[in-house]
Design goal:
heterodimer, A: about 350 residues, 8 helices, elongated, B: about 280 residues, MetI-like fold, 2 domains, globular, ATP binding (chain A), NA-bd_OB-fold (chain A), ABC-type transporter activity (chain A), nucleotide-binding (chain A)
Chain lengths: ~350, ~280
């Protein structure tokens, strides 16, 4: 049970800056997700908490104690690796019990605790197997069991679900969330999958190029993206981003998109963002129409239909009703939900409020 | 279809023929030594050759191991080879691990590795005179420790490089997991890296053992009497001014093969790669 605090943390590999000037407080019992594309510094950040990477500058505190120079074994954190990192020469039981063996917990206590944890993650019955005799999902559970067998101050999870197939991933995601709620242990979770971030996190820190672009609850990150990067990274399908210009609160793009009512914003080079579900297909001749464009493709996902339109150089994705019917090249009129449109400055990438 | 099957048949015959030739070339000398060791002197030189000993005798074994000190040579060889192997494998693993895992500024990892290997780039014979003088000053000529030290110096670079490559093949996350789980670096090395590098340890041990068991040149210069002389020196000693004792040479030579063969059979099950499968990847 502990908070994790980063103070002006910098990590450099040679001349490459992996993490620059990171300031972040992970609260006690919080489930914090570090989200970002590969190479954004999220894994490095986590490895610094574990003590597997040295901090170039700045300070890291776990539960109020400065841990910069503390060996991993004294940090009392548990980590689940992307590759699971199960000890291949040890049985499932020995893998799970390894942290206890190292801490010289008495044998019978060890056995009892291993049984308990194994039951919790439904591995009892597989305890004598070797890792190579397990399926991917089972290995995942062993890695998880090894982490939760002692109650560490912090759980660190490095893309723990990325090697599982889609179905199992959804199931394990729910189990992870439940487990964290039950154990009430501060958790830092690294992923590039924005759905995982949205579903699991109390708060999400979106990272890009070694910097936290935005920190907030999943809802804030989704509904109120502060930068162009966050807007484009979160959401599936992603937010439509249209290049154009704003003059006196009226946005126009080369593709014929026109949005007014943007206050008194002015920018020669702006990006308009609008989520697919905030775009509506309108009857022909509607006065709310923002653009009229031909259909590029229609994809039925089941609960809705994704309609992609070609407006000049830009492709716009619309989440339309599941009963939408349209053909290639058919002209469609669409309107953006008022108040659900974002404006970004192309140069600074920051949001322009209006 | 028929054509294809025929060509596969020819390929297979060719493969077996090649293997057969290779086996004859490598195994016949061993057989010939074994056969000669049981023949009377006169039969060794008989023409046409006596392929199978007609009157088997153990007299050469008696001559070598009872009348002459070949048992002591064998014991010396054993002590020297096993000590060299132990020291080389222990320090080779430690050095190899350090080179495989630790961080070095700039290109130092490469520089140090290359320097270690470069100590083997000259032929051993050029070091013999300095070694002789050095051991003479230390009063260590004609002692087993001198031979062990010299052999270790020659085996350690290879042992280090072999172990380095084995450790580099192991996923580093396993040791990281061990350290996060509460181990020290040393514990991670002992509990995780070393057990997984077992095939490497086995291969390195066989390598060192064979090299030191068979070595001739250094032992010839550094040893004088049966206090430290090894089997190859003892065997070579049966080529004398007046006679070459082929029977004794064969008996001792054949006996010398046996321990290495036994060791190789014992160790080969550890040579199997792939124990680390299942560690990473779903």
């Amino acid at each position: 049970m502990a908070s994790v605090v980063f103070q002006d943390v910098v990590k450099k590999f040679g001349t490459f800056t992996a993490v620059s000037d990171l300031n972040l407080e992970v609260r006690d019992k919080e489930f914090l997700v570090l989200l970002g594309p590969s190479g954004c510094g999220k894994t490095t950040t986590m490895r610094m908490v574990a003590g597997l990477e040295e901090v170039t500058a700045g300070e890291i505190f776990i539960g109020g104690d400065r841990v910069n120079d503390v060996l991993p074994k004294y940090r009392d954190v548990a980590m689940v690796f992307q590759s699971y990192a199960l000890y291949p020469h040890l049985s499932v039981a020995d893998n799970i019990g390894y942290p206890l063996k190292i801490r010289k917990v008495p044998q019978d206590k060890q056995r009892q605790m291993v049984m308990e944890v194994a039951r919790r993650v439904e591995l009892d019955g597989l305890l004598d197997r070797l890792p190579k005799q397990l399926s991917g999902g089972q290995r995942q559970r062993v890695a998880l069991a090894r982490a939760i067998i002692r109650t560490p101050k912090v759980f660190l999870m490095d893309e723990p679900l990325s090697n599982l197939d889609a179905k199992l991933r959804v199931q394990m995601r729910a189990e992870l969330k439940h487990l964290q709620h039950e154990l009430q242990v501060t958790t830092i979770y690294v992923t590039h999958d924005q759905i995982e971030a949205m579903t699991l996190a109390h708060r999400v820190a979106v990272m890009n190029k070694g910097v936290i672009e935005q920190l907030g609850t999943p809802r804030q990150i989704y509904n109120d993206p502060r930068t162009l990067f966050v807007a484009g990274f979160i959401g599936s399908p992603p937010m439509n981003l249209i290049d154009g210009e704003v003059k006196d609160g009226v946005f126009t793009s080369l593709g014929g998109v026109r949005v007014d009512g943007l206050g008194s914003a002015n920018a020669a080079s702006a990006v308009l963002g609008v989520r697919p579900e905030d775009i509506h297909v309108l009857p022909a001749g509607s006065e709310k129409t923002n653009v009229m464009a031909p259909i590029y493709s229609v994809e039925l996902t089941g609960e809705s239909t994704l309609v992609t339109l070609r407006a000049g150089a830009a492709l716009l994705t619309v989440r339309a009703d599941k009963n939408f019917v349209g053909d290639f090249d058919q002209m469609v009129e669409i309107g953006f939900a008022p108040g659900r449109v974002f404006l970004f400055d192309r140069q600074s990438q920051d949001r322009v409020d209006f | 279809m028929a054509h294809r099957r025929k060509s596969i048949g020819i390929q297979r015959i060719a493969a077996y023929a090649t293997i057969a030739v290779a086996l004859v070339v490598t195994l016949f000398p061993v057989y010939w030594i074994a056969a000669n060791s049981f023949k009377y002197d006169i039969d060794i030189f008989s023409i046409p050759p006596q392929w199978i000993p007609a009157n088997p005798t153990s007299k050469h074994y008696h001559a070598a191991f009872v009348e002459r000190p070949f048992l002591i040579y064998a014991l010396n060889s054993l002590i020297i080879a096993v000590s060299t192997t132990l020291v080389s494998v222990v320090f080779g693993s430690l050095a190899g691990y350090a080179l495989a895992r630790f961080q070095y500024p700039g290109r130092w990892r490469y520089q140090i590795s290359f320097w270690i290997l470069s100590t083997r780039m000259m032929p051993p014979i050029v070091t013999i005179i300095p070694l002789y003088i050095a051991f003479n000053h230390l009063g260590m000529l004609n002692t087993k420790p001198a031979v062990i030290i010299a052999y270790t110096a020659f085996n350690l670079p290879f042992a280090t490089w072999m172990m380095k490559s084995y450790f580099q093949d192991l996923p580093v996350e396993l040791e990281e997991a061990a350290m996060v789980d509460g181990d020290t670096r040393w514990g991670a090395f002992l509990h995780v890296a070393l057990p997984l590098a077992r095939p490497g340890l086995a291969a390195t041990a066989i390598f060192c053992l064979i090299i030191s068991w068979n070595e001739f040149l250094l032992a010839l210069i550094l040893t004088l009497t049966e206090r430290s002389q090894t089997l190859p020196i003892g065997i070579a000693g049966r080529v004398t001014q007046y006679n070459t004792y082929w029977g004794e040479i064969s008996a001792a030579g054949f006996t010398a093969c046996i321990p290495i063969m036994i060791f190789a059979f014992v160790v080969q099950k550890h040579l199997v790669r792939g124990i680390s499968f299942g560690a990473v990847k779903g």
